[in-house]
Write a structure and sequence with these properties.
Layout: H1 3-16, H2 32-44, E1 50-54, H3 62-79, E2 82-86, H4 90-94, E3 98-103, E4 106-112
Parallel strand pairs: 1-2
Antiparallel strand pairs: 3-4
Helix pairs in contact: 1-2, 2-3
């Protein structure tokens, strides 16, 4: 993509994840939650049909973790993308519509809420 289009897309995605005010900041100037939002924006840059989140709330405080989950739900609704989250956190699990439990590489439970 031409540089101008890349910059426009970056601004669009940062706005989408509520970070448009951080466009000129370097990674070490961002909080953990802001870095997670940037990672989500980066994942969305190619309009994927599936989003994979490996412990998306790991290492975040409770409030910021909830903000990230709200953002993920909003993106799921907005883009109709499938979202797969891997977590050990029961609070994250409770926020999901479907839970598939794996043990030793095998599905042992599949619950749709």
């Amino acid at each position: 993509w031409p540089r101008k289009k890349v910059q426009e897309r970056a601004k669009e995605l940062l706005d989408l994840v509520h970070l448009s005010d951080r466009l000129e900041h370097l990674p070490d100037q961002l909080s953990g939650g802001q870095r997670q939002r940037v990672a989500i924006a980066r994942a969305l840059s190619i309009n994927p049909p599936i989003l994979l989140g490996d412990e998306p709330t790991g290492n975040l405080d409770t409030r910021t973790g909830q903000e990230i989950l709200t953002l993920i739900r909003d993106l799921h609704a907005r883009f109709a993308a499938t979202v797969v989250i891997v977590t050990h956190d029961p609070n994250v699990e409770a926020s999901c519509e479907r839970m598939v439990t794996l043990r030793d590489g095998r599905i042992v439970e599949d619950v749709v809420r």
